[in-house]
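Hi Y.,

Following your request, here is the sequence exactly as I used it, all 265 residues.
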Amino acid sequence: MRVVVTRPASDAATWVAALEAAGHSALSLPLIDIAAVSHSDAIDHAWTQWPQWQAAMFVSAQAVRFFFARQPQGVQLGVHLTRCWATGPGTRKALLQAGVPPSLIDSPPETTGQFDSEALWQGVTSSVRSGVPVLVVRGTEADRADPQLAVDHTGVGRDWLSKQLLAARVPVHYVVVYQRQAPAWTDEQRAQAALAASDGSVWLLSSSQAVANLHHSLPQQDWSQARSIATHARIAQAAHDIGFAEVRLSRPVLADVMASLESLA
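Below is the corresponding structure, written out as C-alpha cells. Let me know if you'd prefer a different format.
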C-alpha cells in the first residue's frame, strides 16, 4: 500500500523507513515545516529557572528537541524534582533521548487508547500543587504572508491543559522554542499530492494544522476519493471537513498505524 507521510521532515524519515520495512511504499510530503525561533533569550531564561517549575509540559517531540538543545551544562535533571509531562509516546521518547530519567516523566500509559491533554491531566491532577508554576514548552505559528513573523509570542498548543492548571490555581508560564509554518512545496510535490488524492494512497495525518496547510496548498483539490489515517478525533474531523472520503482513527504508535493500514487493504 502507498502511504503519504505528512510529518515534518525531521520526523518523517523514521516513519518512512518503518513503513517500507513492513512492505509498504512510503512518500514523505511534509505538511509542516519546523524552524528554530530567531531569539533564544526566553529559552535560556526558562532554563535558569528550572528548579522552580513543578513540571515542564512539552507539547511535542519537537518542543523537547529545541528546548534541550539550549540546556546549560550546569543543570542536572536528576537532581531537581521538576517533572516532565508528555501527551504521547513520541514526546516521551524524545525526553528519554534528551537524558530525562524515566522516573521524572509523566505521560499516558502506552496501553491506553488516548494520547492527549485530557489523558495526561487524569494522570497528573492528583499530584499538582497549587501556587507552584508549570512551564509549557511549545511552538508558534508563522504568518502565511510573512513566515518570519511569529503571530503569537506566547505560542500555541495544549490550551485545554493550561486552563485546567489555571483553574487549579497553578501559575502557567510559556516558552516558545520553535516555529511551525506551511511547507513551501515544489511543483513536483504538488503534483504528487494531487495524484495521491485519488490513486488509493493513504494519507497519515498527525496534526490538525497539517490538514489546514494541505487545504491551503491545494485549495481546489477534490478529496472525495482520498483515504487517510488520523491520530486523533480532532484531526479526523479536520480531514472530513476538507472532504476526505474515508478517515480511520489510530493511536499515534507504529503498531496501531500498521493495523489501520491492514484494515484499509
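The chain is about 35% helix and 20% strand.

Thanks again,
Q.
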